[in-house]
UniProtKB/TrEMBL annotation:
Cellular compartments per GO CC: cytosol
Keyword vocabulary terms for this entry: Glycosidase, Hydrolase
Protein name as it appears in the record: Glycoside hydrolase family 1 protein
Keyword Hydrolase appears in the UniProt entry: yes
A GO BP entry: carbohydrate catabolic process
Amino acid sequence: MIDRRNLLAAGALTGIGAMAGAAPRRMARPAPVDPRFPQGFLWGAATAGHQVEGQNVNSDVWFAEHVTPTVYAEPSGDAANSFNLWPTDMDLVRSLGLNTYRFSLEWARIEPAPSEFSLAMLDHYKAMIEGCRARGLNPVVTFNHFACPRWFAARGGWSNPQAPELFARYCDRAARHLAAGIAYALTLNEPNLAGVLQELLPGNLLEADKAMTAAAARALGVDHFEAGNNLSIRDPAATQAGLLRAHKLGRAAIKAVRPDLPVGVSLAMLDEQAVGRNSLRDAKRERYYGPWLRAVRGDDFVGVQNYERSVWTDKGKLPPPPGARTNMMGAEVYPPSLAGVVRYAHAVTGRPVLVTEHGVGTDDDTIRQWLIPEALAELKRAMAEGVPVLGYIHWSLVDNFEWVFGYRIHFGLCSLDRATFARTPKPSAHLLGRIARANALG
Ligand code: BGC
């Protein structure tokens, strides 16, 4: 189990980082046409259940965190205790000046055993949706953000031929309880990377993940354990087929309950750039995004999550240019990458784009303070060119459980004191809030 997007970067760096040469810098960007954003633009911050709630004990990820051997640096434990402190989180989002909060439902809480649905947990998430509305926040709700019920992983996770129907059944039940108040729904988070990432990873990491997965299967007495965020995928084609169909059936289930609710999926996208002749860029794009960008053409919008760019020659990926600002993983922080993927996603799908995640893992908040307005200026430029963008949701509201890296990598607009659960806004939080309040770049 792993943070797939971080490892995409890490894997690419490990695999071909020795290549000579440096990624090109783009020409200086002209000022944005108009600093104002359209009325009704969504300005938000995001979290995901397992990463902030704490004690998600019936989930596959919790199980993998505690199995021996595990690839997790540490267990998620109480996380940010957002299961109890969600009103604090929402007050924070509102006080910063944002109008949108993205969070996820935890399937493992709602359906802790197959077909046993918990009314109490559905009520919990209903209270969260109503809590958003009471504060004037648009709830953007992810039905599944990587973590799944342990029983689902013990049946092979997304590779199980029954997985799409099981997911659709959960979506139907959750939607009947919750859909009325949701502003935008996402079925899955970053499903496009499942099973393809392992091609890029260093062998030792892959082997460690396989050992963990095998240990989890042994402990549960099953043939195959595949968690929602598994890194080693036994049959990538089956898992991808399962996820594509799960999105389709999940979306249909939600739409059947509330046809006017916009439903989409969020895709992990790097800004893939081509250099020279016969660049590997287009092959990379097809492999990582092609099937999903085609699949979402019938959706109401496409959710885009971006953190980085990749620059491809005919031989591989170039390393960051000398002097580039980098994140905690050593990857380049490149502000125009967000607009790059937004333009591409819209060009291929024809759908409006919702930026469901964008941010940086760093302990240096000045990098975040630089990234946000720079990226938004280029995003606004793309919008002026005609790309419909519904909103910008920053990852993350608060430093949280960064999957396999535990609490060591910090993406938050707010820091977290793990002893008191106090959240403290960083300067970047106020900066994003000022832009949101003005609905314009300063
Ligand atoms: C995921 C988050 C993760 C973030 C930062 C995205 O890949 O949706 O769960 O924490 O990136 O790595």
